[in-house]
Give the backbone structure.
Amino acid sequence: MKALKYIVPLGIFAVLCVFLGIGLTKDPREVPSPFIGKAAPAFTLAQLHEPQATFSPEQMKGKVWLLNVWASWCVSCRVEHPVLNDMTRRGIVPIVGLNYKDQRADASKWLQQHGNPYQLSVWDIDGKVGIDYGVYGAPETFVIDKQGIIRYKQIGPITPEVLEKKLLPLLAKLNA
Amino acid sequence: MKRLLGILALAASLGAWGQSAEVANPDPKVEGRLKAIAHELRCLVCQNQTIADSNAPLAIDLRQQARAMIAEGRSDDEIRRYMVDRYGDFVLYKPPFNATTAVLWVGPGLLIVVGFGVMFVMLRRRRAAGAAQPAPDAARRREIEALLASEDDPSAARKAAPKT
């Protein structure tokens, strides 16, 4: 009974430590997306390379695909770009680019320089579609399933590690 | 001169990065409501600022969006819902009460109640412990009474005290 007096505060302290410890491992910049498990917002935007042609997510129904938010002014996009190029080379998944708040000429030049992994890119000059997708920085990547439901959102660059550990298992599951 | 031109060109190109145009609404009522609601919304790029305080391109875009919605005659609740639908509860500086935030809202009150409860129980236990002191037996009682009686005359106490 006497020991309880010491064990209880010690126990509370231990629980607090565990919670704070978990808190340390989390990145506050990664805001949980309210879109997981919800339908990808509809939009119709002009394509980057063919301004007269449009694209809307409807056209990808029946396919698992990625919507990747990128821009020529985005520094971290350069980090993930080789990974995207590699994914397309390996034919892993169709990737649609959402060119976010960028100039057409800058964006096209950037793709010429760094390679174009995208099936196509759409051009979101004023960031309106970005807002509809809750984008608050680039790069961000949405995994969208055959029914058009968003299954995962990658905030920040897709690193080889993210690809191996998160995307590949998820894509395999969604394509099964 | 060349250097100055270089700096100007650099500044211009930096300005073109986010290229977010902010146009204030001529109606002061719209701007007033915008100011109020912008102070409740978090800028997700610079997380410890509201979108009213921040000049990040996203904050400017969101202000512009809220301004447009106010001009369309939408209510503050509709604007809040619009932001929460896209950015989650995190966008609100005052989190709503729901299953995930229940601990946050109830926790401090609960802690106070539990704390007072523990304090109350402990105080009562201490008081009960004080009252439960064993009553002095007859010999002890005589000794105490003798001591009390001899307050004025210490020699009497020595005489009355039983030899032990």
The longest helix of chain A spans residues 4-25. Strands of chain A lie at 45-46, 54-55, 65-70, 95-100, 120-124, 140-144, 150-155. Chain A is about 40% helix and 20% strand.
